[in-house]
Amino acid sequence: MRYRVDIYQQEKLLFSVDIEHIDKNKRGEYLELLLVKFPSEEGYQLKTFYSDHEIGYLKSTGDSVELLAALPVYRLVPYG
């Protein structure tokens, strides 16, 4: 499973952090690390997304198929 965390300050997107191939038992620990580094008290907002599948773009030629790109499909992690 993949995660992407978008980090905002004052409604402006600063950057995104991609987290891939992590042990699901440590997932919360890594996400918590971001919350500590970018606290809401300092005006940061974090939106967390997860992806459990991807879309593949293929190119078909005479006798072969080539994978051109594999893009993750992200969904917002619901809170509460």
Please give a structural write-up.
With about 80 residues, the chain is mostly beta strands. It has one domain (about 1-75). It has one helix and six strands; from the N terminus they run ββαββββ. The chain has one helix at about 25-35; strands at about 1-10, 10-20, 45-50, 55-60, 65-70, 75. A four-stranded antiparallel β-sheet has the order 2-1-3-6, with no helix packed on it. A hairpin with a 2-residue loop joins strand 1 and strand 2 (about 10-20). The chain is elongated and about 60 Å long. The protein starts with a strand and ends with a strand.
Kindly list the characteristics that best describe this protein:
elongated; 80 residues; 6 strands; four-stranded antiparallel beta sheet
Strand and helix map with partners:
Elements: E1 2-9, E2 12-19, H1 27-37, E3 44-51, E4 54-61, E5 64-72, E6 75-76
The best one-word shape is: elongated
Which consecutive residue ranges, at least 5 long each, have pLDDT under 50?
none
Annotation, overall tally of beta strands: 6
Q: What spatial order of strands do you see in the largest sheet? A: 2-1-3-6
Helix content: 10-25%
Strand content: over 45%
The main pleated sheet reads as: 4 strands, antiparallel
Cα gyration radius (Å): 17 Å
